[in-house]
Amino acid sequence: MFQLKEQIAVVTGGAKGIGKGIVNALLAQEAKVIVLDKDVEAGEALARELPIDFLNLDVTKAEQVSQVFSRIIEAYGRIDILASNVGIFPQKTLENMSEDDWDAIFSVNLKGTFLVVQEALKHMKKQTYGRVVLTSSITGPVTGFPGWSHYGATKAGQLGFMRSIALEYAKFGITVNAVQPGNILTEGLIEQGEDYLKQMKATIPTHTLGEPIDIGAAVAFLASPEARFITGQTLIIDGGQILPESFDAIL
């Protein structure tokens, strides 16, 4: 079960971090993976490391999104899976946040999700099959964290977007779901510093941080043909972080 052999999978933001974990999980299930990323250097390095195809893409540019997906259809004939994973998370308190700060994160995290998903669904609808999995977060939909109010707003917004389009496309054999990672040990998390990592470990019942492959495994499941009866749902992957009512519960 859960084999993705000969499935055409597109992963945005797949060159590193959680995206790379998703790529590895899909490859393990024998999918053909196309990585779309703005970071050309990282994308080309990944293409040398793994059996993937890489295309440069800025998800905020509608015309570029359309052109890239047309190239994929021309080369492969279909898109079975979209893992919409691109996201940024600059830290900024509300007091110090500018309008440009707000617009920048919404452009990538929400507008980028909209453009990529809309384009993929055009092709999935024609083939009456598709799996869309968004990378949201526990921050915003479930929890909050100082300095990430703009980030949390985008991640909560992704889930509202997901639920409505899941209804719009269910009759076409297409499912739309999301994963909500907790603290995953990526390059971006490491940049927050050792004190932050220690603080996060202390709040997680497993006392460990997740790894990108933990998210990838969940995405691979939701992307499988067997997950056909799951749509408009989210899966929290956080080592139990949101469960405790107090620190006494995780000593």
From TrEMBL:
Top enzyme category = oxidoreductase
Highest taxon, organism lineage: Bacteria
Which keywords are on file for this protein? Oxidoreductase
EC number in record: 1.1.1.100
Picking any one GO molecular function of the record gives: 3-oxoacyl-[acyl-carrier-protein] reductase (NADPH) activity
> InterPro entries, from UniProt?
NAD(P)-bd_dom_sf, SDR_fam
List the NCBIfam families hit by this protein, alphabetically. PRK05653.2-2
Record family assignment: Belongs to the short-chain dehydrogenases/reductases (SDR) family.
Put simply, this protein is called: 3-oxoacyl-[acyl-carrier protein] reductase
